[in-house]
Amino acid sequence: xxxxxxxxxxxxxxxxxxxxxxxxxxxRVVAQAGLIxxxxxxxxxxxxxxxxxxxALNAIKAASALLLSAENPVISVNGNAAMLTPEAIxxxxxxxxxxxxxxxxxxxxxxxxxxxNILKRAGAKSIYGIDSEHLxxxxxxxxxxxxxxxxxxxxxxxxxxxxxxxxxxxxxVKMGKKVIAIDLNPLSRxxxxxSITIVDNIERAMPLLVKKVNAFRSMRRQELEEIQQDFSNxxxxxxxxxxxxxxxxxxxxxxxxxGFRETEDNEN
Length: 268
Ligand code: PTJ
Prior knowledge:
The chain is α/β, with parallel strands linked by helices. The chain has a single domain (about 55-240), classed as 3-Layer(aba) Sandwich (Rossmann fold), CATH 3.40.50. It is built from twelve helices and seven strands. β5, α7 and β6 form a beta-alpha-beta unit. The longest helix has 22 residues, at about 235-255. The structure holds ligand PTJ. The site of ligand PTJ has 24 residues, from α2 and α4.
């Protein structure tokens, strides 16, 4: 059942996102587990204060430099990512000359088709990862995520993986690829194993990534490399955790609720 979200509802934006994902479930774009994954993401977003924290901006800067330096970048798309940010995925791909590859944990042909259609409607010209003639299998993985395009992820040097489950990130890094993750959970295996983790909501992070890549477009290669060298994923994740810790400590000591506007607290 789809509902109309009242514009003045204090959590209207969050409810609209949920509705979008429910619609995605009905149209086969989103997997059932995608709704559960989103709930986990929402919980971490609360801890971050539902905003892009400085450590995320730092990771976005490093990710932009890496994408612009890449020879064969690929944006890996799953159901949630396709439903939440199709336009930004296509825009980012065009800006950094990346391939867009569908890679699903819960893979079936009807979902592949639905995701292909949503990306096409957003302007994608070529979509990789769904033509069975061009699929290879990564021996390190047992899940459906092992199926990768021989012209896409298999030969990529940099792979952007929004909302990932960790084992593939680990396998891609072992293969010598650089992995950029977007994951609200700084403790997830994906976050820990990726080369650069953007701990932020995909709906906020993708437009910021597009903006930063456009700002860095004319930068010299050496400058792009220096930005990457200055970045440490382990240190950046520590910054995220420290920020959450400090925020919660402050709120607990001040005796306030979790820092949202009162109406928002009442709703939940
Ligand atoms: O479409 P498929 O078949 O490939 O399946 C996709 C899901 C998401 C179901 C699959 O990849 C999965 O099960 O993922 P996990 O292991 O639940 O991991 C998802 C991660 O994304 C979790 O760490 C969440 O905190 C995080 N997450 C959820 N929503 C968002 C998010 N991160 C950023 N932005 C979000 N909106």
